[in-house]
From TrEMBL:
PANTHER family: CARBOHYDRATE DIACID REGULATOR, DNA-BINDING TRANSCRIPTIONAL ACTIVATOR ADER. Pfam families: GGDEF_2, HTH_30, PucR. InterPro entries: CdaR-like_regulators (IPR051448), CdaR_GGDEF (IPR041522), PucR_C-HTH_dom (IPR025736), PucR_C-HTH_sf (IPR042070), PucR_dom (IPR012914). This is Purine catabolism regulatory protein. The lineage of its organism: Bacteria, Bacillati, Bacillota, Bacilli, Lactobacillales. Belongs to the CdaR family. Residues 308-448 form the CdaR GGDEF-like domain. Residues 8-125 form the Purine catabolism PurC-like domain. Residues 504-562 form the PucR C-terminal helix-turn-helix domain.
Length: 568
C-alpha cells in the first residue's frame, strides 16, 4: 500500500517538500496523473496523485478553492505543484484549505520532471495489482451471477449499494427513475430530499446541465453536488453513464456515499454498468417481442383475417381485451411542421419516428387515467385507437364521442407544438370481430377528408357518417361517368374560372359549406357582402340556375363533391 508518507520517503523524491495538509500523510495513492485544465477533473479517478504547474488557476483564488474541494470529493491523496514557473509560491488560501481538508500540497522542485514522478509511482504500485485483480474478479462474479440468474434492476441496485457503501439510483437515458435502493446505514432516505417516482426525473435541469457535453459517451464516473434548498443541503452524487456498443441505456447515481469512494467502488460501478446495460437489453428485447406479438394480432384483426370467433376469444384473453364491449376505430395521422427541415433525410426520419413514439406514450398516459377502455398502437405515422365502451355508454352518441376525442387532441397538441394532428372515426362495431370494418371506414374517412368541402374550416375531427355520399360515389360510380356529370352541371363555371382567373367555384364551395349564409361566407372569403352578392348573380347567370331552388342546389352540391373527389 503506497501512502503519501511512503511516497515522500522514496529515494528519488528527497527534494519534495510537503507544505500543508500533514494530517493527510496516510492517504492512499492508487495511481498518478497530470492536471493541466479545470475540465480535466471529470476524467480523473479515485486515489490518483495529481501533478500540476498551477498555470490554469494562477490568477483565480475562487478557482483555486473550487479545485481543492473537487479534489477532496474525488478522494485525491495529494496535490503536487511545481510553483516556480507560474505561481512563484503556493497561494495561502490553498494551503489553508489543504489543512482543513487533510489534502497534502507537495512542492515539486523545478528540475524534477512529472514523467519521472509518475514512472516511479507505477513501479512502486506494480506489486499490488495481483490483489486488485482478485478483488475485481470477485466483484465481476457477483454481477455476472445477477445477469445469469435474472436478478434484475433490484439486485443490481442492492449489490452496488453494498460495494460502494452508498444509496443508489438507476435511471434511464432521459434521467427518469427506474429503480432505487437506500443504503441501510444512511440516516435519511433519498425520498426525504427528492421526489422518487418511476418514470419521473428526480433532478433539476441545472444539475443535469452541469455535466459535460455528450456526457453519456464518457463512460466514467463524474462527481457533482445536488443542492437541496429546502434543507439547505448539498448532497454529493457520483454519476456514471451506461453506454454499451454505441447505445446509451441510462445512468447509475451514487447518492451521498457514506465514505470516500475507492478503487473497488469504481470497479463495482464499471461492472454494475455492464450488468445494467445487459438487463436493459434483455428488458427491451422482451418488450419488443411482446409488442411484436401484440402488433401482429392487431394487424390481423384490423385486416379482417381473424374470422373464427373461438380464435379471436383465445387471442383476446391472451392480450387482455374485453370482447363484451363495443369498439370504435379512431385514426390520428401525425404530420410534422417545419421544425426539423435542416436535418438530412435519415436524421429527420429518426426524429419523426421518435416523436411519434413520444406522442403514443402521451396517449398512453391519457388512457391510464381515462374511465374508458383504450387500445393504442402506432402504424407508420399514425396513432390507432380502438375505443371500447358498453352499449349504454354516452360515447355511443357521435356528438359526445367527438367531444371525447377533441379533449384528447387538445391535450396532445398543447404538449407537442411541432406536430399537426387530427382524427378520423369509423362507425362503432358491435363486436370486436367487426372492428376491421370500423378501421377501414376510419381510413377511408382520412382519404376522403382531404377532399372535404369543409377542410378549410377549423375542423380536426371527421366521422365516416359525414362522408357517406363521397364513399358511395367512389365505390359505385365510374370516374368517367362522374366527370361527365361535372361537365354538365359545373362545366361552364369551371371554364369561366380558367379563362378569366376568377374564383366562382371556390365561392360556391364556401356558400355550400356555410349553408348559403351570406354573412358567414363573406367573412370566410374576406370579401364585402355586395361583392359576394355580385358573384352569386354571376354564378346563376353562367349556370342558368336559381341557387335558392332545392333541386338545382342538390345537383350543384353533387357536382362540387365530384369536383373535390377527382381533384379536377
Amino acid at each position: 500500500m503506497l501512502t503519501v508518507k511512503r511516497f515522500l520517503e522514496l529515494s528519488p523524491f528527497y527534494e519534495l517538500k510537503i507544505l500543508s495538509g500533514h494530517n493527510g500523510l496516510d492517504n492512499i495513492i492508487t495511481s498518478g496523473n497530470i492536471m493541466d485544465n479545470p475540465d480535466a477533473i471529470d476524467w480523473f479517478s479515485v486515489g490518483e496523485l495529481l501533478l500540476t504547474s498551477g498555470y490554469f488557476f494562477k490568477d483565480s483564488p475562487e478557482l483555486q478553492n473550487n479545485i481543492m474541494k473537487q479534489l477532496k470529493d474525488l478522494n485525491c491523496p495529494a496535490l503536487c505543484i511545481k510553483p516556480r514557473r507560474y505561481l512563484g509560491t503556493v497561494p495561502e488560501n490553498m494551503l489553508k484549505l489543504s489543512d482543513e481538508l487533510d489534502l497534502p500540497i507537495i512542492e515539486v522542485p523545478y528540475g524534477l520532471s512529472f514523467s519521472k514522478i509518475l514512472g516511479r509511482i507505477m513501479e512502486e504500485l506494480s506489486d499490488k495489482y495481483d490483489s486488485l485483480n482478485k478483488k475485481s474478479l470477485d466483484i465481476h462474479s457477483r454481477f455476472f451471477n445477477i445477469s445469469l440468474h435474472g436478478g434484475g434492476l433490484h439486485q443490481i441496485s442492492v449489490t452496488l449499494s453494498d460495494i460502494c457503501s452508498s444509496s443508489v439510483m438507476l435511471l434511464d437515458k432521459n434521467w427518469t427513475v427506474l429503480h432505487w435502493t437506500d443504503h441501510p446505514k444512511q440516516p435519511h432516505l433519498m425520498s426525504e430530499y427528492i421526489s422518487l417516482k418511476r418514470k419521473e426525473i428526480p433532478f433539476s435541469d441545472d444539475f443535469i446541465r452541469s455535466f459535460p457535453p455528450e456526457f453519456e459517451r464518457l463512460q466514467k464516473p463524474v462527481m457533482r453536488h445536488m443542492s437541496i434548498s429546502k434543507f439547505n443541503a448539498s448532497i454529493p452524487c457520483t454519476v456514471i453513464p451506461v453506454y454499451f456498443q454505441s447505445k446509451h441505456y441510462g445512468y447509475i447515481v451514487l447518492w451521498n456515499p457514506l465514505s470516500a469512494l475507492n478503487e473497488y467502488s469504481y470497479i463495482g460501478l464499471e461492472n454494475g454498468a455492464m450488468a445494467f446495460s445487459l438487463e436493459r437489453i434483455r428488458s427491451d428485447e422482451l418488450t419488443r417481442t411482446r409488442n411484436r406479438i401484440r402488433r401482429d394480432f392487431l394487424d390481423e384483426l384490423l385486416m379482417g383475417k381473424i374470422t373464427s370467433k373461438e380464435t379471436l376469444s383465445n387471442l383476446a384473453d391472451l392480450h387482455g381485451i374485453n370482447l363484451d364491449l363495443y369498439y370504435t376505430a379512431v385514426v390520428f395521422p401525425v404530420s410534422f411542421l417545419n421544425t426539423n427541415k435542416n436535418l438530412d433525410i435519415v436524421r429527420r426520419n429518426q426524429w419523426e419516428n421518435t416523436k411519434v413514439k413520444q406522442v403514443l406514450n402521451h396517449f398512453d398516459q391519457l388512457a391510464s387515467i381515462s374511465p374508458q377502455v383504450e387500445i393504442l398502437f402506432s402504424r407508420k405515422k399514425q396513432i390507432i385507437l380502438l375505443l371500447g365502451f358498453s352499449n349504454d355508454n354516452e360515447l355511443n352518441q357521435i356528438k359526445l364521442l367527438r367531444q371525447y376525442i377533441q379533449e384528447k387532441l387538445d391535450d396532445v397538441l398543447s404538449n407537442f407544438t411541432e406536430i399537426s394532428l387530427y382524427a378520423t372515426i369509423g362507425k362503432t362495431a358491435t363486436h370486436m370481430s367487426d372492428i376491421h370494418e370500423s378501421f377501414h371506414q376510419a381510413q377511408e374517412t382520412l382519404r376522403l377528408s382531404e377532399h372535404s368541402l369543409s377542410t378549410h374550416l377549423n375542423n380536426r375531427i371527421f366521422h365516416f357518417d359525414e362522408f357517406l355520399l363521397q364513399y358511395f360515389l367512389l365505390e359505385n360510380i365510374e370516374k368517367d361517368t362522374m366527370k361527365n356529370y361535372f361537365k354538365q352541371t359545373l362545366g361552364p363555371l369551371h371554364d369561366h374560372d380558367l379563362n378569366n382567373g376568377s374564383a366562382l367555384i371556390e365561392t360556391l364551395i364556401s356558400l355550400v359549406s356555410h349553408r348559403f349564409n351570406i354573412a358567414e361566407c363573406s367573412r370566410d372569403l374576406f370579401i364585402h357582402r355586395n361583392t359576394l352578392l355580385y358573384r352569386i348573380e354571376k354564378i346563376e347567370s353562367i349556370l342558368l340556375v336559381n341557387l335558392k331552388d332545392a333541386e338545382e342546389s342538390l345537383k350543384l352540391q353533387l357536382g362540387l363533391k365530384i369536383y373535390q373527389l377527382l381533384d379536377l
